[in-house]
Design a protein that fits this description.
Largest sheet: 5 strands, antiparallel
CATH superfamily: Gcn5-related N-acetyltransferase (GNAT)
Helix content: 25-40%
Distance between the termini: 21 Å
Order of helices and strands: EEHHHEEEHEHEE
Low-confidence stretches: none
Oligomer: single chain
Strand order of the largest sheet: 1-2-3-4-5
CATH class: Alpha Beta
Number of helices: 5
Mean pLDDT: 93
Length: 176
């Protein structure tokens, strides 16, 4: 599945590509030009490392099976005549067993403002409208209350223990 540019009320979700990943590794100025957005000095968000970006490139390079469908989250400030700002990223990982998992991360200064909920809900809507998948999983930790709230607001329900020790898994089912 190849991601498309998505929009929400406050965000542009720009597809992550091999080109954008290489730009992110080489120079944030290059990435800034590609995304047409200012990149804060606090980039990348928590849990996104150089190794993660290399893993994304590997997943995106596999043309036989989709492994990743992800987006950069850009705050759209065009209505205020200000520069757009890269605030987070997130998307879908297609597992070998046929399941699909969503993950996301937002810069600290933009957390708890509804951006993750807005983006995650839009990504779910996009996936369910373009595929025959019937459910999406997410994994988090009980102590990460903001992450739990994002999942709950988007319609995810608890689904037992996660793969990592102490983690919990959530699921959302496609409504027909």
């Amino acid at each position: 599945m190849k991601p498309e540019l998505l929009k929400t009320d406050r965000l542009r979700l720009v597809p992550v590509t091999i080109k954008t990943c290489n730009a992110e590794l080489a120079s944030l100025n290059r990435l800034s030009r590609l995304l047409q957005a200012t990149i804060p000095g606090s980039w990348p968000p928590p849990l996104v490392t150089e190794d993660t970006v290399h893993e994304f490139i590997e997943l995106l390079s596999d043309t036989e099976k989709p492994g990743l469908c992800s987006w950069y989250w850009v705050m759209d400030n065009s209505h205020q005549k200000k520069d757009d700002i890269l605030i987070g990223s997130g998307g879908l990982y297609f597992c070998d067993d046929g399941s699909c998992e969503i993950g996301y991360s937002v810069l600290d200064g933009y957390q708890r403002q509804g951006y993750a909920t807005e983006a995650v809900c839009r990504i779910i809507e996009y996936l369910f409208s373009r595929t025959d998948l019937e459910h999406i999983y997410a994994t988090t930790y009980p102590g990460l209350y903001p992450s739990v709230r994002v999942l709950e607001k988007c319609g995810f329900l608890p689904d037992g223990d996660g793969k990592e020790e102490g983690s919990i898994r959530y699921v959302i089912h496609k409504f027909f």
